[in-house]
Please model this.
Amino acid sequence: MASNGSLDSAIPEGELSEKWTKYKSKAKLINPANKRKYKIIVVGSGLAGGSAAATLSELGYQVKCFCYQDSPRRAHSIAAQGGINAAKNYQNDGDSVYRLFYDTIKGGDFRSREANVHRLAEVSVNIIDQCVAQGVPFAREYGGLLDNRSFGGAQVSRTFYARGQTGQQLLIGAYQALEKEIDKGGVEMFCRTEMLDLVVVDGHAKGIVVRDLKTGEITSHAADCVLLATGGYGNVFFLSTNAMGCNVMAAFRAHKRGAYMANPCYTQIHPTCIPVSGDYQSKLTLMSESLRNDGRIWVPKSAETAKKIREGQLTAADVAEEDRDYYLERKYPSFGNLAPRDISSRSAKEACDEGRGVAKTGLGVFLDFSDAIERLGEDTIRARYGNLFQMYEKITGDNPYKTPMMIYPAVHYTMGGLWVDYNLMSNVAGLHVLGEANFSDHGANRLGASALMQGLADGYFVIPATLPNYLAEVEPGSVTVDAPEFAEAEKAVRERIDKLLSIKGNKTVDSFHRELGLLMWDKCGMARNKEGLEEALRRLPEIRKDFWENVRIPGSGEGVNMELEKAGRVADFIDFAEVMLHDALDRGESCGGHFREEHQFTKDDEAVKSGYTNEGEAKRRDDEFCYVSAWEYKGPGEKPVLHKEELEFENVELAVRSYK
Amino acid sequence: MNALGQSLLNFWRSSIGKKLIVAVTGIILVGFLLAHMAGNLLIFQGRESMNDYAYFLHHFLHGVGIWLFRIVLLGAFILHIVTTIALVRQNRGARSEKYACEATVKASLSSKIMIWSGLTVLGFVIFHIFHFTIRVDPDLAGMKDPGDPSRHDVYGMVIAGFQNPLVVLFYIIAVTLLCSHLRHGIASLFQTLGLRSEKTRVAIQYAGIAIAIILWLGFLSIPTLITFGAIEDNGEAGKHSSTTFVIDPPKC
Amino acid sequence: MNLTLKVWRQAHADDTGSIETYPAENIPEEASFLEMLDIVNERIIEDGGDPIHFDHDCREGICGMCSLTINGVPHSKETGITTCQVHMRKFRDGDTIWVEPFRARAFPIVKDLITDRSAFDRIVAAGGYISVRTGAAPDANATPVPKIDADAAFDAAACIGCGACVAACKNASAMLFVGAKATHLNKLPQGEPEKDKRVLGMVRQMDAEGFGNCTNQYECEGVCPKEISADVIAKLNRDYAAAAGREAVE
Model:
């Protein structure tokens, strides 16, 4: 076994390309008669949770699946627009498992585990087979075969897509599989049910405490293991592209019960969102990155012209070609508008910081389709992006066929999450974490069309193969809800709810969430520095104190109480933000979605002089920070303790990431 | 119950099964209406054509034909009504609470009043049968064809029957509602039978409207023209017109 | 802008419920409809009241959670959008807006504007899937699917399961939802083997849930945020007739 400091990542021995195959051939098995004795709890019903619950039930386990939405089909995986990567090489353009692996490692700025990423690339091909068999209506060519397109950060066309609704179609596939298993009795589904605590018995995750969001009833559920597939924590910023209900509660409850939180500072800012228009705004809307295939991003060369556009004196059409700065094409000629997300986002921020932003607020750049429309015709563009253009028009009132879209980066995905080993098991035995909720595959930055791939890889193919490794070691049904740990957890949950309800202060939950979000966006957003992070760490305890003294939650714990639900989530976001800030402060380098202003290339750097990269690009410090930060919870307001999992790269050479 | 019986029961119990019954019986009824209208229009050819046609109807297949025809028609009619009422009851139950603010975005007026137009037509059909088929009025029942007193004078009966303005009014209202019923019903039966698609959608819509208009004009032309005196019963025996009714009445 | 809201309030499933009036003052025109309700709710909470409860999640028109009947029309009279995509610029200053839940016996009200649409899940569980065990699938390109079929399947698969079709139908019929799911799967060669079982199972469940039947008014099509055509209902009818026929004789 490869050693990784104090944390055992359980990476199998052997050649990178053979690890997964060998692992599977040697993995423990559970015979069919015994499988049905095992109970498995799955929290979350998105791509990872839904596919895991369905597949585990098909294998014969007894599954209980929980989601806060009114149906498993509503999980936020549904909102992914662009596509899903797979190393099928159907286009014969030189793709391979290794290339997908390498692109993902490089895209993640060399901060992810080689073995996990290679497995992801291997499994990617099976995912497409599985989804097509389920009836996912991927785009096809006239010959009836599957179509592909290229996506940010890749030079091959390996992205499978279903118009702009790929996430929806994949989720519906998983949802249908899940409903099939519900009908057969293999899965018991609990909708509108929120996990409020993890129950750990003798060091093993053995159950959860949940609240029925319809009745307010608090109940315990015991099982032989617990799978969390609860998504990311982007809503710590209040404004993000996440759904309103997305939250970190389940993961954070697990963190409080001992699970390490890994790399929480890695947050992905998506470059193509609709700019913020006012302070009433509740969420940000993403426009698929696929728009960058045909759209050209630009701002005026001069700040004065930009000012006139902001004030409505000029329109985009008034700016002559030579006065436009297609800054991505200029800075990254080989990738151009398809440069990876972190780079595109930061470039937009730079342009706006220079006063060249074009939206009313100053925070927005043009995404222009006029060249593409001229080249391909409006019909082709409509066929490719019709629904996205329509969505844009509905929200902004502008017609993107006539005037360029305006976009600005927004928080979109979080690469960090609960620490897991190769088996997707956290440091708490029996607690497995899947999809966006874990930290494992994307390093410091995720490539486009890889989130769907990872969610489904974890759920359909990885966890069914790795879970028996843990289950074979435990006696099925050894812990029931009669264990005192359940009563203790239930009591803590009730006390917390009672406390929240008893405050009866004068500020709404949303006002705290907004305050927290602004602080995090400001100090721990697209660019971070030591001073700002320290300031945020000083302000957080004040927000927490204010929250617990002045929040106002009407109603009671019985029946539906959406303010109470939100309050619990915001309280955990506040505590979570602290871990995130500590992580961002600790990581004294810039990599992927974590940009520390202190660490960027300057004109004195050799790489800039040689023309390999540009001034202002993120500067990794591999000698000091080539590790996964796994944080251990130490109590409310206490600084968490850092555990490091050193990352070893045996198959790729750590290089300065250049997309020039 | 055997498997076939169970399948048929399932079919009857299902909403789509009942809808299919409504559609198929609807086709029969529309077919009848077209034939009925065509027959009625013979009145414009004069007494003989009309009475020849009536005579034929009553005597083809030695008089059995009309009863076979009536049984099928009555069966379709009853099934159409019974099934529709079952569906309406189910539908009313499915939406127990009304909106405080009601609005529609594309439902046609005809579609909204289907049950009322249908029930009015039912009332009219009963009246119509008593009026012209059973002929409860002895004056109408006793009319004899002046050219062949052995047979009933349908031509004269129709003209006499429409002398009462109330009858004409009821007839106009009922036929108008019937055509409203058909405007929605004909297009609907294509949908229920699964024949509506992107390509056929518009054609079906217009076919429904066209058939409804043709029937409306055809049926209403008769009482209207009688009321305005364009068709009169002058008591003369009918003369064969150039387009004589093609099937000669059997000689017996 | 200043508006008056007439909102359905119902404390819990067994409460009778009634329409209450709320002022919505100083609402920015750029706000979405749900953001307008957020603003109203913040004021209600600050005044010590119970906020208006409504379902919502992604707020970008894809999750299918938001479900308001606005001025008598599910997702408002604007076509091709969900409630969360309705923007206040579409209303006029001084307007009175009626906000009601999606009404159907099969969608019982949970609280205020929140309804229980789990009947849809049970319909899908009754056949709205293709049975394929994970790992048992052949290569994705092994079965070519004509583009025209793939596109038609996609058009139907665009359904987000919001239930607007049911809410708009005077019969609370779920035919557009069921037709969309059946068309999506029946159009594809992968869905062929289970076609009859699927259609019979889903229709049986749809009837058992207490949905009404289709009287071809196409209100559903008019309010569907994904603009799914009522042609899918025709196809469902056809597939059902064929399936019922085969069930009876085979």
